[in-house]
Specification:
There is one protein chain. The chain has 13 helices and 14 strands. It is an alpha+beta fold. 40% of the residues are buried. The protein binds adenosine-5'-diphosphate and magnesium ion. The site of magnesium ion has 6 residues, from helix 2 and helix 4.
Length: 510
Amino acid sequence: MALQQREISVSEFFTKNRHLLGFDNPKRALLTTVKEAVDNSLDACEDAGILPEVWVEVEQTSAEDRFQVRVRDNGPGIVQEQIPRIFGKLLYGSKFHRLKMSRGQQGIGISAAGMYGHLTTGQPITIISRTAPAEPAHFYQIVIDTKQNEPKILRVQEVEWQPEQGTQVQIELEGIYQRGKWSVDEYLEQTATANPHVTMHYAAPDGKKRDFRRVSSELPAEPKEIKPHPHGIELGILIKMLQETRSRTLKTFLQNDFCRVSSRSALQICELAGLYENARPKRIATKNAQKLLKAIRNTKLRNPPMDCIAPIEPELIKAGMRKEFKADFYTAITRKPTVYRGIPFVIEAGLAYGGALKQETCAKLMRFANRVPLLYNSGAGVIKQAIASANWKQYGIEQSNGSLPAGPLLILVHMASPWVPFTSESKEAIACYPKIEKEIVLALQECTRPLRRFLRQKQRNIEERRKHKYIEKYIPHIGVALQEILQFSDGEREHVIENLSVVLQKSRAG
Ligand SMILES: Nc1ncnc2c1ncn2[C@@H]1O[C@H](COP(=O)(O)OP(=O)(O)O)[C@@H](O)[C@H]1O
Ligand SMILES: [Mg+2]
């Protein structure tokens, strides 16, 4: 037995459990690969204050089920030393340890895609990156040594490359290409909706090209990085923070390593926990960490600062929906920031109705987390739960119990937060925190009010038109009847008919 015990590296773990990362079938693997690369490009551009432009090419290679995915951006590029670890090591990234709103957060996306590609085709991931026009472009071919979870560089060289700056990632993988639901096309369409400041060019395997052009040339406000709020902390993390802190006393640790802890509340926490304010953080035993956590939770603190969230904002949500979907009516709202488990978040919602949207038994639902479309598993998670539990019938929209409402309706829900609580690593559904669900329900209610007004007005217009048509039909008969009773000439009869028609027209115009 003892001989069989061996450490498992994260890469080995995720090779076996690739479904956890979104590589459970070939169609989805293709989508996930594109998504990971595009999400990274958008994050990198926005971090560097660059309006993103992204080129996505998916090309069939030799066999029917083999594809070459190439994603290039005009972003800041990647410094040479970082390239191998970013693309050849799982759980390596710049975003996990900071609390800042971004698309990626675990440092597992792009390297996992490269690993899947290598696993299914034997081909390495290929990267070209340049950080400035004056710098050379670097070309890398990398695979992951899964036993060690370390990069193995197959080739590295300086190359001629036309773009002045940016990164290109190329992965060959086994996949299936289909349009429609859960496709690369749908992902790009939805990304364009929630990111009206982004331009994307897409070349599909069937040779079709599609451009998604930006309708806003303003970058979203840069979300601020924040320190964790004490009320959101769990015991394990607290212990780790105590071990790793640079602060020398418990009091300064509380003040410096968290947000919203004043000198007064730090003292209050120490006192409540029965711990000495000058205690060395590294010396605090697990039992005392538990006491500390309890004291933290029982101390009133201000809510975390909210400038760490950059919502899309209603005008741009509407512009994004208008750009991709032709409807008769659009509305959108952004809720005020609030917190779950000490972490700030904002819910936004948008509705579009009628026009080219099809009359379906289920509305079209678009879910987003930090501007990233969540395509898979739409039946799970807090967004579906909130929509199903909202009372749509009271707003004149059909809905069978526990499901999405019906009609030519598009529902968009966006959660923005420095830490989105996904239900799994493949980031497809948001966990059901009651606080989050409540915000979504309120956001939808706010959106359905103007929709109801629109639908009522529409109903009134239909009704009125019907009545007008009816009267219009009878006006000539009235003319004839009056002629008979009052002995008009034919000319007078026509005159009366004309006058009545004018009155009717006027009433419609009014
Ligand atoms: N196109 C790119 N341009 C610049 N930096 C990138 C790009 N792609 C990835 N990176 C860097 O590589 C890191 C790891 O990416 P990834 O494995 O997708 O994890 P995550 O996005 O969750 O951090 C990112 O945090 C980012 O710093
Ligand atoms: Mg990523």
